[in-house]
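Why do we care about 3D structure at all? Because function follows from shape, and shape follows, mostly, from sequence. That is the central idea of this module. The next example makes it concrete: a single protein chain, its amino acid sequence, and then its structure expressed as tokens.
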Amino acid sequence: MDKMQHRADNTGSVSEASMASAFSKGGTMSGINEQFSKLIAADKSGSLTARVKGTLQKNRPQNQSVPSRGQNPDSSLSLSTRRELYERDFPVYKQPVEVGCFSLDSERRFFNDGRQMRYYVEPDRSPHFDLRDGYKDRFIKRDDSVKEKLDHMLRWILANRSKLSARGTTASSCDLDIDFVTWRGHLTKLLTAPYETREGWQLAVTRFRGTLYISEVETEAARRDQENRTERHEEMMYWGYKFEQYTCAGM
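And the structure:
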């Protein structure tokens, strides 16, 4: 398991980035949740051994030098945080394709279906939404001490391998025909690193049979911020969920 860190000081590179092996060939896999352990238990041949300071990068031959600061990011496996390197035409992205869904109820229980999906309903031009409604008497606050990480997504993968398996493999195979398994917010943190000047982050990355599993690791600063949230901050966070409720209709 590799760890990627970003200290939000914008000093020209990801200043606290590192990659450290959490397990090697024949070793144990500590810190991986139960579902992930099931997914990769059949394979013990992979090892991640590179340790790098200053850049986010994949394993690289030892005789290959770190790219210079003026080098184009496309020509290396590093991720520089120099903004000027990315000031170019916006890339072309393909339309996302949904491969499946799952639902979580009010108690965070997993269901391998779309029972919690809702339709978007465009509000009136001048809506009168009471975003405070229910906060004091009906709101069930999520337990922030429970770190779900990739648990629910991995559980869905275990139940739907046939939808993700590479061609020519069986549904029971561990091979997945995808490059990344992560939440979109994690990729947002990674891709906006050159422009983030306030909040740092840490991501844990495990590469297994060609697929990269990316999960966030809570930093000490994030933990302190969470513990020191004011009542006003908590209520403002609730407003976003309430707005979503107003603009979504039941099935």
